[in-house]
Amino acid sequence: MNEELRTLVRLQKLDTRLIEKGKAVKSIPLRIKEMDPPIQAAEEALASQKAAQEAIEKKRKAKEAEVKEIKERINKMRERTSQIKDNKAYTAHLAEIEAAEKSIHTVEDGILEIMEQVEAETPKVKAAEAALKEQKDRAAQLKRHLEAEVAEAQKQLDQLKIERDEMTRSVDKATLAKYMELLKATGGHAVVAVESEICGGCMMNIMPQLFLQIKANDKIINCPQCKRIMYYEDGNI
After folding, report:
1. For residue 26, what pLDDT is reported?
2. 214 and 234 in contact (C-beta within 8 Å)?
3. 123, 149, 168 - which closes a domain
4. pTM, whole model, 2 decimals?
5. Average pLDDT in the 91-112 region?
6. pLDDT tens digits along 51-77
7. Rounded CA gap, 101 and 77, in Å?
8. Residue range of the domain that includes 209
């Protein structure tokens, strides 16, 4: 194979690895970012459970305040009892005290029901807290793993760049410039193999005579359609 063509083929293979490794490095922060929605969902679920529990606690405190207010009202009514001289008014006054005392029992029954609701909500809050912790632990573990992965990938990327710099020193500057233009224009595929008389880049059929020239691998030949550099994979690259 023509030595310059051989170098370009090897350079293309090296650049393909560089591009893939570069994409892998860039994708890792995105993979870490993918853990945000599950954590956010777990945080929202916990906040919702706590809000429900707090709402019930608020009802309980309101009921307790109501009991306190009724008891204070009863005490004031009892203090006025001795001042009532009329029998009818006295009877009505006692009835009012009795009704207030009964209302205390009704409110206290409501407090018991609310406390049962609080007890029912407590496991839900703990479960939501556990779910959030699990998501955060999982995210932290994944982050540590991916950070190690990105460090290794960056190390490999740096090594590939060194290899590339060494390889490009042996390529004619004009040829390298054309290769770089093609690499940019074709999205990273400047040099492609030809199989069964088909360009590996644009998939255009190659004329038999041109295909024979490509199989010889003795010079640089560009695809008539996509302008990529073509070669024949003969196992000697």
Report:
1. 85
2. no
3. 168
4. 0.62
5. 92
6. 999 999 999 999 999 999 999 999 999
7. 11
8. 3-18+172-231
Give me the CATH number covering residue 71: 1.10.287.1700
Task: Give 191's DSSP letter.
Answer: E
Q: From the CA atom positions of the chain, what is the Rg in Å?
A: 41
* CA–CA separation, 158 and 162 (whole Å): 6
**173 HSE (CA, 13 A, CB side):** 0
Given a contact cutoff of 8 angstroms between Cβ atoms, the answer to whether 211 and 197 are in contact is yes
Claim to verify: residue 195 and residue 141 sit in the same structural domain: no
Phi, psi at residue 153, to the nearest 5°?
A: -65, -40
Percentage of residues in the chain with pLDDT exceeding 90?
77
**233 in Cβ contact with 16 (< 8 Å):** no
- Per-residue pLDDT band for 224 (boundaries 50, 70, 90) equals very high
Query: What gap in Å lies between CA 100 and CA 105, rounded to an integer?
Result: 9
Q: What is the mean pLDDT of the chain?
A: 92
How many structural domains is the chain composed of?
A: 2
120 near 52, Cβ under 8 Å? no
* DSSP-assigned letters across all residues of 56-103: HHHHHHHHHHHHHHHHHHHHHHHHHHTT---HHHHHHHHHHHHHHHHH
For residue 192, the SS3 value is strand
Which of the four pLDDT bands, split at 50, 70 and 90, describes residue 237? Answer: low
